[in-house]
Please model this.
Amino acid sequence: MKDPRPILLAEDDTVDAMTVKRAFKDLHLANELIVVGNGEEALHYLRDSRNHKPSIILLDLNMPRMNGIEFLNIAKQDIELRRIPVVVLTTSKEEQDKVDSFNLGIAGYIIKPVDYLQFVEVVRTIDVYWTLSEIPREA
Amino acid sequence: MKLRSKLNLLSITVLTALTASIVVAGLLAIDDVIVEMNGRLLRNDLANLLRRLPRESDYPGESNRTAGEGGIPRPLSKLRDHLTSRGIDSDGTLFVLQRPNRLLFKAGNSLDASPDSSDVAEMFARKQGIMELTLGGTPYLAAFEVVSDGNWLVVQSASLAQMFRKKTRYLGRVGLGALGLMGLFVVISTLFVGRLAARIERTLDCVHTVEQGDLGRRITPIVSQDEIGNLQRSLNSMIGTIEKRTAEQQKDREALLASEEKYRSIFENAIEGIYQSSPEGRFLSVNPAMARILGFDGPQEVLEAYTDIRSQLYVEPRDRDKLQALFHNEGRAERFETRMYRRDGAVIWASITASTVWNEHGRPLYYEGILEDITERKRVQDALQNEKRFIEGAMDTLTDAFLVFDLEGKLLRWNKTVSAASGYSDKEIVPMFAAQFFPADEHPKLIDALKRIVAQGHATLEASLLTRYGGRISYEFTGDLLKDLAGNPSHICVVGRDITERKRAELEIRRLNERLEQRVTERTAELESANRELKDFAYAVSHDLKAPLRAINQLAGWISMDYGEELGEDGKEQIDLLMGRVRRMHGLIEGILQYSRIGRVREKAREVDLDSLAREVIDLVSPPQHITIRIENELPVVVGEPTRLTQVFQNLLDNAIKYMDKENGKVIISCLNQDDQWTFRISDNGSGIEEKYYDKIFQIFQTLAPRDESESTGIGLALVKRIVEMGGGKIWVESELGNGSTFSFTIPNRRESK
Model:
């Protein structure tokens, strides 16, 4: 990704997190991948001024304590956080989840492929897209 | 001798006599008349002459003087001139004499004579007048006057003979005039008499004509207002009066005749029997109808047949007594009905209207009356009575209330149920009106129903029947408008059914329904809750079951990738088997999710063009080279959920491809419009299905092939069946093992039914 800022991944499943990390490694992506286990941790990270703000957020929906939709509800109300693009990365094909997510201003909604190679393709596509797309600097 | 001749003769006689007497009288008096007339003439002549003479006083100083030529005094000379110039009758002579007898002047024919002195003296004495005198022996008539202070005498004379010479001529003229006058009178009198006679004849002629019977004749013209005229006018007026009276009499006569004829005709042709009978019991006269009614050929037979009406005619002889009692007490009987024997012994019903004719002593002379054969009417009445009894009996067997009202709402007929239900006795019901059977608060409803009955001929109404004791019974009424023979509304017929029981049942049903509704609401809530749980469950399955699977798959992949060398061939194969089972499990979970989603998540139904949808699906399933998929006829546009319909075609085509065992595979899609639904068929020439599996293949998780061979989850057909049935259709399979299968499903043609 052209933008050197870190990428925040909110994912409770270790294997899924590993999958993303592995794909990053396989694709030789330079951006730092910060992994948090749920919405609360994500908000905590984002609101800590010592941390670097991420360029994009990869968000799982089904998480303990605070799920993805709940996180979006808060983050998109937060004037500091609302401009950070959020790509939902989930196993849910529920129409309602898609509608809720897009209502909360997400930038993309991707179903996690079962097959790892397809997963790698997904990550590559995200990388390519956010390389082309401009992101506000002070997001 | 005719009047005309008589009158003519009379007038001629009278005129002749008159003329003759005039002539005789004239002849007798003529001499005196001539003398008198000539005397006057002479005197007048003399007076004229003298008036022209100048007076002696006009010549003063000359009196008694003889001057002028011839010694004649001047005035006299003037006189002489004048007389000379004037001349005198041929036989007349003028003398002027001076007292006592001196001739001063003379003029005329008899100049040679002078009047006698005695005559002169007489004339001087008389001063003036007329007298006869003789001149030269000839008689003369003279007029004389003394003038000039009595000195002069002027004498004018004329010969008498001369005068009488004219007499004959006068007489001739007078006679001729008399004759002429007489002729004229005769003509006038003849004309007058002729006219008079003509008028009288005209009058007579008219009177004669009238006498002959021509009352239209009148005397005309009436030319005068005289007595004859008045007579004619009176005659005309008299004829007019006679004519009018005659005409009236004629009319009266005709009316009388017509009336007689009419009554005769009525008597002869009446349908009713007309008769006169004696108090003793014989018929005095009967008309043909009477004879016919009693079974006889003619009236005469009837008169002869009965000697005692009472016993021969009356079935109940006492009816005759009753009838007679009526005659005696009231003078007449009206529509007295009794039974009578006909001649042939048959019994008839007769209606008698009769009255008594009294003699001057107040004794009944005879009875006269009209008899009507009412046997047929009686029969009809009896039949009607029976019919009425039958209907009333039938009505009373009804358990429903039956009422008939007239259009004013007056109750005319009712059955026992009405009295039983309302509590009124029949006698109490008689004067009642419709409104009295209903409580006042329901009257508007009732009036509304009545209006409907009148307008539409029929109406039903639920209302309360008001009982005598104020109670209310729920009734359902059906009202119908009855019409008379002419088609005019005449009655309202109402049938009422006691619906108390039904009302109670309805109430019960309503109560039960309410309870049921409550139950349904509760159940629905429970179901909704269960559904929600199921949805949550499906969600959990989709995520929570799939996540570990994916992790296993991921990890297995990485192991195979990262440690492939160490695992060896066996190890790799086991990892591949592991990942295969993971994929199948993933498929099963997906299947469950899809299956549960059909009822749970619904797309909005819209028009779907199945033809283009099927073609897209064919592309999507991308059949291998050896299989052709063909759409036989154009598929319709239906109303449905596009995604679901796609799933139906996709699964059926997937199956057709998956179980194709022929080298030249053929799949045919067709459709058929039947009644109100479309039937779609997808036929293949694949392996086919045994009939015993027809049901099983549509059950979830049921497959016919070993799982490892087909990788089939057993979801597809169950999914299709569920979609088709949710859409109101059916699905079935027809197949022949080894020769292929045909899957058919229907979709209701909602588009056309809308």
